[in-house]
């Protein structure tokens, strides 16, 4: 096959490209330029897509003896990922930009362009496995559960999965670094990048404030309706948040308080005790299936955050939406996050959380 290897400049994508070459494929390395103002050097381990990363990717490609190109998708990344991220927070939701990037950039923008240029597939350094099942290719969790990235790949549909390779899914991260060192890759000990790549200093609230400005509003007790403080914008808060609330604690009973709701239209943040955070009903929209859509009520495992635990659940798909009933309550589930459904290790699909609640 003719394969585009997405090369971020990190150790994982380097080994993924090498393994595809070892497997006998015709491989071309592609680095995605996603930042309009890439810094020369990383500001921290959080950043990615810098000039340094592009250079690291090019050196790996040179060592492998494969062609290497930089594709500029910065404008599309800004529109489909960054602007979407800001708009979601402005609306009082908590998005996962990595899922949106996989959906809109790596497995739409990159894959579509690769196919248009005559390539057969795309390979990335994600930790997940593709298994040939009776009904076609299936997406499964990685062997290394600590590094498993199947959650952020839950947005792939069957057609995208048919043209995707994840060569690292059967190996632990420790082994990948050893393999990179044995291959002579200078990136073997390079630190991993972390979410969110376009906020390299990790200050999400500051990033959003610069984009949206300050909009003073009230912090309201979710039970009594009493105003217990003020805030500079609902975009600085997410369900489950405890720190940085700015509460007048002299008016409280000493028990910890959390964000239990964000009412963006009324510019209010609802505050409550931890017992108000637990939910066992999750409603989802923007459904994406990695294979056939479930029919009727099905038993699944549900995961509501990238590094969260899988919870046994029942799911019902109806009228383009999914309702997930969790067997146990989960705390801090916010609209805008994604719920990814599993059958064993297989990814069934995903949905964007539109609402939560408690079963009667």
Identify the notable features of this structure and list them briefly.
transferase; 17 strands; 360 residues; Elongation Factor Tu (Ef-tu), domain 3; Rossmann fold; MnmA-like_C; five-stranded parallel sheet
Q: Reading side by side through the largest sheet, how are the strands ordered?
A: 12-15-14-13-16-17
Please identify the top-level CATH class of the largest domain.
Answer: Alpha Beta
Q: How far apart are the first and last residues' alpha carbons, in Å?
A: 53 Å
CATH level 3 topology of the largest domain: Rossmann fold
Enumerate the spans where pLDDT stays under 50 for 5 or more consecutive residues. 40-46
Percentage of β-strand residues = 25-35%
Q: Could you name the CATH homologous superfamily of the largest domain?
A: HUPs
Could you describe the largest sheet, including whether it forms a barrel? 6 strands, antiparallel, barrel
